[in-house]
């Protein structure tokens, strides 16, 4: 078993409220220094994101200098500069990561029956390696995550998803992209904040759309994240994108979940409308270019 999670907490809080758990991943050879260097060398710009530490938690995510260095070079210089290296989908680069991802997900399925009833539409992992004293600015991710701290110390500030207003989620989901969601930190309700002092062997569950910012302390930090989206989660995103248009027309949309069949109809409409809107946009841009 890789994870140790309190089953009552998992049942009560899964995808609703962040919670801590313990794990045994830190001992795996996969995460030792030599293996991580070997893994980083396999990455070019694709599937990797190398960024400086942010000056503060409320810095806009993409305002921080990024992608000026290859992952292997940033890793070599990690103790001499403040960098954050994200290696996306290592399971596509090393079969040992593919095994680890499927073992962890199988454990989650065994532990949490409602997840077995869901259709998972995207499952992937990532490796995060950061210098000490480095800040990852405030944002949210449109996916459910299990975050494993492998080595080093991290203070993880995460808010329950209820800290995000519906209109903010609608603005994000109308784009129909898998990307970070940008939010203003100052507008959050501080009673929704959870702070986890993470070190090797400790982990944290992060619900979909749970905004967070992270700071490392003294030395370098290594983390591993398992993330996934369910068909239900995707559907809620499409419903929210429909609600975005309703709000623009001056109509207050019904609360999500209040009328499930209406939510489903809205989502079905946007399943067609979002790709069509993209196609129209592309055509218009081509037209303008002529
Ligand atoms: Fe994130």
Short description:
The protein has 290 residues and is of the alpha+beta class. The chain has helices spanning 7-13, 33-41, 71-76, 95-111, 113-116, 166-173, 231-248, 260-289, and strands at 3-4, 19-23, 48-52, 83-88, 120-130, 135-139, 144-151, 154-159, 193-198, 202-206, 212-216, 221-230. An eight-stranded antiparallel β-sheet has the order 1-2-10-7-12-5-4-3.
The number of domains: 2
Q: Give, in order, the helices and strands.
A: EHEHEHEHHEEEEHEEEEHH
Helix share bin:
25-40%
CATH class designation of the largest domain: Mainly Beta
CATH topology of the largest domain: Jelly Rolls
Query: Low-confidence stretches at least 5 residues in length (pLDDT < 50)?
Result: none
Query: Can you tell me the CATH superfamily of the largest domain?
Result: Cupin
- Average pLDDT score: 93
Shape: globular
Distance between the termini: 59 Å
User: What CATH architecture label of the largest domain applies?
Assistant: Sandwich
The computed structural class is alpha+beta
Strand arrangement in the largest pleated sheet: 1-2-10-7-12-5-4-3
Strand-residue proportion: 25-35%
Q: How many β-strand stretches?
A: 12
Number of helical segments? 8
Biggest beta sheet summary: 8 strands, antiparallel
Mind telling me the C-alpha Rg? 20 Å
Bound molecules: fe (ii) ion
